[in-house]
Amino acid sequence: MTREYALSQNLLICVRAFQFCVMRLKASAFTSAQGVREESDIQSLTLDSGGLVIIVARERLPDGRVQGLRIWFRDAAALRYLDEVELARYWSSEDFPRGHHVLEVQAGGWSEEESALQGYATKRREWLVVTGNGCVSVFASSKPETAEVFHEFDA
């Protein structure tokens, strides 16, 4: 490997790193606007042969139960869990739909980051599950199924 080639490769890596650092998320709402409460969080993640099931604990009700949302991805290929602080560049984007727990990402998300790091683009369908705390990025080719759920609060 020549010195010039090594320098050009290092420059290319720096340019790609800069590109995904300044990417802005463009997404559309998949679920209806229910508001994302500050105390909402990912309650559980289950990945098995039946797919990926994410339970979002949305809020604690006066009767002590927890109102939540069950999100089922039948064909999840990958997932990434992050604290909401680690996604600040996403939710600070102008095109970030607020008030929705499930978004479909069109541009600027984890998929583009992976393509930039790998040096080639792969067409993936990406989803983002949003709460006031933990968030989950998911690669899945089909739309998730969602349902309201209620359960007793476990202290």
Protein traits:
single chain; 155 residues; alpha+beta; 5-stranded antiparallel beta sheet; 4-stranded antiparallel beta sheet
Structural features, described:
The strands form two sheets. A five-stranded antiparallel sheet has the order 1-6-7-8-5. The chain has a four-stranded antiparallel sheet with strand order 2-3-4-9, with no helix packed on it. The chain is of the alpha+beta class. It starts with a helix and ends with a strand. Helices cover 21% and strands 41% of the residues. Helix 1 runs antiparallel to helix 3 (110-118). A hairpin with a 4-residue loop joins strand 7 and strand 8 (134-140).
Brief rundown of the structure:
The protein is an alpha+beta fold and 155 residues long. It has helices at 3-22, 88-91, 110-118; strands at 26-29, 41-48, 51-60, 65-73, 76-83, 102-107, 126-129, 134-140, 145-152. The strands form two sheets. The protein has a five-stranded antiparallel beta sheet with strand order 1-6-7-8-5. Strands 2-3-4-9 form a four-stranded antiparallel beta sheet, with no helix packed on it.
